[in-house]
Specification:
Keywords: DNA-binding, Transcription, Transcription regulation. The chain is built from 10 helices and 8 strands. It is of the alpha+beta class. Strand 4 and strand 5 form a beta hairpin.
Amino acid sequence: MTNIPLHLLADRTNLGLYLKYFKKGEVVVDDEAILSAHRDDHYMFFLLENGSGSVMIDFIDMPLPEHSLYYILPTQVHQRIKNYAADGWVIAVDTALIPPECRTVFESTLILQQPHVLNAAYLQQFRDLLALLFVKYMEDNAGPFYILAIHSLLQSFFAIAATCYNGDADMNLKVSRPVQLKSQFKDLLTTEIRTVKSPAAFAAKLNVSEAYLSEILKKTTGFPPSYWIQQEVIMEAKRLLYYSDLTVKEIAHTLGYTDHSYFSRLFSKITGTSAIAFRDQYRK
């Protein structure tokens, strides 16, 4: 593999939605390619109704407890959910279908999102809603209101999910400017990190001063922009080292570094190990 595969939802469906109820041990998505590490151009949601599972996402084996809700953001590198002892739902959905207010909640943190364990009331709401959504999803789509019905039910799912995660983050859905700016900065990190490296350049793209961006990120995350820029660079480097066969020099150039020696020193400084040693360790 020369790079990390990107899976497109449009290759699977023209509805902007893939929905399935999985049983213990079943392959969640009917595509063997999903078994290997990849990125998606869409959101993935998981609801574990019975039993527990896990998913490998960006080098963390994330445990998914029983009755938990979890999601994977577009571009995050992951493997398929390990559901050997779990039943539940998988929902793959086009990012464009998710209301901006809900995306703000889902993408509000710069650290890896955590599972949300549902109480009995929310669990029943999700069960009822997804069961109805699945009935409509499986219907003959010739009807004039087929898409409208599906998308309306999806909107309810997103709103309830965002309510759960909003409570976890102790946020207000009327998002403050600092939280909004943090979310916009995170979006830029994932899309621009291969070409943009300086805090000043990110600030310019966000139409704020470098000092203001630094102040907001320190206040909301505890760290300045330079910290998060380096973290994103190193995470992308780790992904390419583990999941691709690119050389360290090729990875440096892919990430926008013309001086691969500088990139190697930066990697060692941040991780405490060389890029080659990291690849050898994780590919044992």
